Amino acid sequence: MPRPSVEAERREQILSAACEVVSELGFKSLRIADVARRAGTSSGTVHYYFDTKTALMRAAFEWNFARSLDRRRDLLQEHADPRQRLRAFVDSYLPGDPETVRAWHVWAELWVEALHDRDLQELNEQVYGEWRRLMASIVRDGQDAGLFRDEDPVVVANALIGMIDGLALQVLLGSRSMTLERMRAVCEQVLSSLTVGSSA
Amino acid sequence: MPRPSVEAERREQILSAACEVVSELGFKSLRIADVARRAGTSSGTVHYYFDTKTALMRAAFEWNFARSLDRRRDLLQEHADPRQRLRAFVDSYLPGDPETVRAWHVWAELWVEALHDRDLQELNEQVYGEWRRLMASIVRDGQDAGLFRDEDPVVVANALIGMIDGLALQVLLGSRSMTLERMRAVCEQVLSSLTVGSSA
Amino acid sequence: MPRPSVEAERREQILSAACEVVSELGFKSLRIADVARRAGTSSGTVHYYFDTKTALMRAAFEWNFARSLDRRRDLLQEHADPRQRLRAFVDSYLPGDPETVRAWHVWAELWVEALHDRDLQELNEQVYGEWRRLMASIVRDGQDAGLFRDEDPVVVANALIGMIDGLALQVLLGSRSMTLERMRAVCEQVLSSLTVGSSA
Amino acid sequence: MPRPSVEAERREQILSAACEVVSELGFKSLRIADVARRAGTSSGTVHYYFDTKTALMRAAFEWNFARSLDRRRDLLQEHADPRQRLRAFVDSYLPGDPETVRAWHVWAELWVEALHDRDLQELNEQVYGEWRRLMASIVRDGQDAGLFRDEDPVVVANALIGMIDGLALQVLLGSRSMTLERMRAVCEQVLSSLTVGSSA
DNA sequence: GATGAATGAGAGTTCATTCAT
DNA sequence: CATGAATGAACTCTCATTCAT
């Protein structure tokens, strides 16, 4: 009589551990044994749930993304004003708290892994699409309310997302010139310039 | 009678080969033997020039950056108008021709490698600083000429650079939603909005 | 209310499955999990009936032999003429029908396994002894009836059995030079030469 | 300046070691590390010469066969009388001296491995063909000289070879009923019966 | 300067076996 | 009786690194 929850729980433990290890050591240096130890289990068990290291990493990337979405789901309901909604949304991507930093690390590893892996590119495509859709939708709401300049929302979303990716990477790299605070400031500035009537 | 240039030439061959292999296979999958074969030499010789794989990669990253700068040196002299200069500069980073694509690949691998390597972070810091300085300088020239809006040039440079990094990554990932052409369009739009008197 | 036969039935299922898997994949590649799946049960259950993989294989070898004997028991009663009896007996060992082929496969795996296992050698000794006894007995019957040449029956039996083993192996190996038909022809020829008055 | 002989010598050492280990432990239990230790080298070196365990085993089987042929090459020149030539040839296959026993062991492992491997079946086909050709040729010489009965030489060769295979296997299995001496006796008897004018 | 044979530490993966349920 | 999740020992294979030539 296997309890149905046991397998799901174990899976989560392992995926969470995998993300932690990727974040700390990087994909390249990740060993199955590390993930196992972190998850409090054996390497055999990791292989019981995931056939190969590649399969484990793919699942971990997906899990990392699903968690990211979950963390932001409520956020979008909290602010009626599109300006505040956009600000909060962008803000949630600043690599400040450890959980967000970890998610960014995993995401960065995915990128580079995906450069040579068609399947992961597809995953990136889906995630990025979801992200762009959310962002563009907020921009559109703001424009409908006459709050944002009348530019193509998709172009604006792409520009913002690209910028966030690029800046976050520099923050993660510990750049002295692009700290968390600088990134926040740059984002503020750019968001302001979207607003109708802004001088900049 | 070994000419002194022999060693320098060999070094270049190896570094070039290393960048090619990184670009094609990724850092993780790169083997010294691959680099040797690509460079038309033996793994023993690669080790003769570079003590360790890490040393080789570090040198390759630096070489990749130096070449990038070289390729753009003339560019900045060609355009008297800061608007055209900025446009040409940004344009030169679009991952279009094979050489630029390869350089971006190498750069992306460096980023992720640097996430867990202090020395590479320092390299990133220098390169990124150089890039930001060039970009900010053009912006400043434009402002002095009354052509660009009066925002903090460093902030503008950071925003642009971040955006270019993020968008280029998506193009490299073969995104159907962020193709080379889309990236070009987004960049055009953003550059336009910098110009004084632009409606957007 | 488990019927006492349940265990016996399960045992048979597992042994039969083990023989099938050995025949298809070979001893080396046989996994307990394969046998379990083939028997429609779990690996845990296989271990419930057989402590170790070795024990399972030993039992499977014995089961395979017992079945072989069963299949030939009636055969020997059917022919009053020793010549026909011998012919039918030899014929029954030709690797023609799937069941016989499977039995040969299992037997071949036993041989090689037994090369490094004293216990399996003992099993081979018993089985081979039984086989030789039956064969020699038929030969003796034929000689008593004045139908076969007057050679040492044990030597004749050994020669025949050796030949059958060796030829069957080649047939099993899919030899183009030693097909089932060729083997049948060679056996016919040799059996003929045993008969008194044969020209060959 | 690599000496050309180094690689060939090393290869031989490894193949010889592989045959020894196969003979002692069997294919199933053979570990690369065992072969390496036996060859006085490291497992890495074994893999330097043979990509995979499978490749190593295939090469070992071929090497074993080539050596077997070499050992018998002179034998066939030594006896002008086909009866003595056939006797000496058959005799050379009796698993008496350690070298022949080892060769038989390797051969037996090949058989069973080949049951599930098309490539090895092809190797068996070639070797067996060579063997049958030699044997049939001697028989034909004997018939031409009026020394052997007038049976189809190929059938005779097949019968003899099958018998030798089957009997050798039993001797290798340490059968108390089929010792080396018994096998020799059976072979003598059968060879005698081929001779014209033999009473049996 | 250059080579490539040789090494051996290290990692992924397999699978018989165990045991709580 | 039966299950299958979990284990971990064992093995193949990889590859940076070394060094004799």
Automatic annotation (TrEMBL), chains A, B, C, D:
Keywords: DNA-binding, Repressor, Transcription, Transcription regulation
Single GO MF descriptor: transcription cis-regulatory region binding
Keyword Repressor belongs to the record: yes
Entry keyword annotation includes DNA-binding: yes
DNA-binding region: 31-50
InterPro entries (UniProt xref): BetI_C, Homeodomain-like_sf, HTH-type_TetR-like_transc_reg, HTH_TetR, Tet_transcr_reg_TetR-rel_C_sf
Domain HTH tetR-type: 8-68
PROSITE patterns assigned to the protein according to its UniProt record, in alphabetical order: HTH_TETR_2
Protein's recorded name: Transcriptional regulator, TetR family
Species of origin: Geodermatophilus dictyosporus
